[in-house]
Specification:
- The chain is an alpha/beta fold.
- It contains 34 helices and 24 strands.
- Helix 25 links the parallel strand 20 and strand 21.
- It is globular.
- The chain binds N-[(biphenyl-4-yloxy)acetyl]-beta-D-glucopyranosylamine.
- N-[(biphenyl-4-yloxy)acetyl]-beta-D-glucopyranosylamine (26M) binds next to helix 7.
Length: 823
Amino acid sequence: IWKKFARKDIKTKEDFEKDFVNHVETSLARSMYNCDNLAAYQASSLAIRDKLIIKWNQTQQTQTMLDQKRVYYMSFEFLMGRAMDNAMINTGLRTPIKESVSELGFSLEDLIEEEPDISIGNGGLGRLAACYLDSFATLNYAAWGYGIRYEYGIFSQKIVNGYQVEYPDYWLTYSNPWEIVRTEIQYPVDFYGYVEEVPVYEGATEKKKVWVGGERVLALAYDFPVPGYGADANVNNLRLWSARPTHEFDFAKFNSGEYQNSVEAQQRAESITAVLYPNDNFDAGKELRLKQQYFWVAASLHDIIRRFKKSKRPWREFPDQVAIQLNDTHPTLCIPELQRVLVDLEGLSWDEAWKIVVRTVGYTNHTVMQEALEKWPLTIFQKLLPRHLEIIYDINFYFLQSVSKKFPGDNNLMTSVSIIEESNPKQVKMANLAVIGSHYVNGVAALHSDLIKLTIFKDLVKVFGGDKFGNVTNGITPRRWLKQANPKLAELISSKLGGDEYLSDLNLLKNLEKYLEDKEFKSKWQEVKTFNKTRLSKLVKDLTGYEIDPTFLFDIQVKRIHEYKRQQMNIFGVIYRYLQLKSCSPEERKKFQPKVSIFAGKAAPGYYMAKRIIKLINNVSQVLNNDPETREYLQCVFIPDYNVSKAEIIIPASDISEHISTAGTEASGTSNMKFVLNAGLLIGTLDGATVEIAREIGEENVFLFGHLSENVDKVRASHLFDVKLPSSLETVFQAIDGDVFGDSHEFKPLLDSIRHHSDFYIVSDDFNSYLEAQRLIDETFKGDHDIWIRKCITSVANMGFFSSDRAVEEYAEMIWNIEPLSK
Ligand code: 26M
């Protein structure tokens, strides 16, 4: 009988309208007469969500029935951005819904603007996880994401007097239509306590160790449906954990009259998932963060194991049914936790268990930077996770035993590969644990994957051999980063390629090369760019008050602010250009290519230098935009609060974007891919995935400059006694020192890190080559514009490789050994 009542799919506009009105009147308890944009956004989302949930159920049922291997993508961060537009695009419902919404008296664009970003991530790593979820669903893989439902995402950034000010991002203010709370899925997670020896069974003389936890919280599941692209695609799941008190009172306290304290201690449970740590590529080593990590790992593994147990298979088949991918070292506790469950709770032998762990786990590394590598002081570990620390010691003991057999007497090697760093205080090196406890380690771009073998994992390569290490170059989803962010370009491409197929088979873009001589196509291409630049200009006006001119060259650098990403070099370049303009006659100025330098990005709240860079950019911006002599030729803006939805507006508007990290420091970069896919060219160093972009689209289409990664060490060494500034940079520093951009004291640390503190990021060495690349850009852009457009078209045509679909397929084949679901 239930089949009769099974809910119908949204197929027509009428279905949607009925659902919409129904949600306004029941779910939201509002009248249609009193339905504002926010309510309309919520009702639309609920209507779309209903559809996703039906598909989601079907997908989960199929996955359970087929009982194939599943992948669990463990990521501490997911930078999802907005969900509604994406859901409409992926389900193919955007056009009918747009019409419906407008018939109901709303504009779809306005409703989309009502949705807050889901910003529970810092930057590249979190956004990569979101792109991969899109590809998992689109390609039909049985793959889930597991993460934390932080109540506060990455802070929102305001600029006050040129300084970054952080505000909390409480993204759950107006209930969230995109999440489904799973009150039936709650697991206890323990912390602290002690390790006890107990008989292996009652009355036995043989003993085993067990952990007796001291503090317990509950992990409650929230599910986020992840729709694949295509009318009939799967809907996968992102499961995020939220911490709740157990409601088991401390009765000792309770009875002694400390009622308040007893309840308070319980309430503290919720602080575990309250806030995302706002650091990017920097490890602060805080106890609460380790607590977050264990909380999430324990809950996710519990869930995974419960699902596995339903199939009643023997434990040794676990790795044939389950693949766990560690997105960086943040979930490395999966390794000792799985070992603990198998040995302490399930009674497997150490060796049996360890084989299962290693076969199950894969590890992706995202950085070579020392200060980003996670290390936990033993003291914190011992207190919070006493049994896990013992297990780690045992893992290390057996591992080092095997090393010393293979390399007898090589103490340096032992020290370097050991999981425990014998420093003061002693620390657990999570990256070493991740390598030792997984069957495959990958970097995120070809250069980066080579570099980790030569640097941080050099000695582990000696031990395991090179075959355990490989590369999967990052990718981005063309659904969000082309169709959603740049509907005009997507439409133009569809009109030439005869449909939208390229969105799920990005190599088809290659066919665009046929239109290199097509004048009409090229002029439409230019129109799209101008449209996108105008769209961005409006946003800039709204957010900064500055008016920028869409006929200028748009030069954009948007990413987290970090010394290694060298926004400081960019702004020094802007200053240099300004000084040049100032020293010219009005006639000579006319020869300059008008340009606006656009910046955006957050600095970690405790990162002093990064905050100085933001202040300098804002001060420069104020001087330039108010200088009547030069502002027709050069402007500069800092867009506050960079996030995914702003990226969708900013990226399609670039003529040039900057990817200018010190060679060998940016693991991959993913915005470089987004910019090229959106018909902008790059200025960049040979770093991260930019190397492969140049390979794919042709070096002649990338403005490359700077020292190569293999020479960086040598260049650095030459700074030991003295840093020689080129006269170009000297001029820039003189202007800053001379208070041309406000109080120079504020920028002294920035300049001193270069001129007096050995210029670690080799700005002084790369500066002239950077200026030369900029000069070439001006010349090319100002010259025959047809050449510029041809470069852009050729570049887009050759971006197929950078689809996250390709990346995910490589993971599936090389690391997870899974195939898409057979339907
Ligand atoms: C670590 C410890 C404590 C607090 C925070 C962290 C932490 C958080 C995020 C460390 C690193 C984090 O992210 C690093 C990151 O985003 N890496 C970027 O990953 C991208 C995807 O692979 C690459 O494209 C970028 O090059 C790389 O910088």
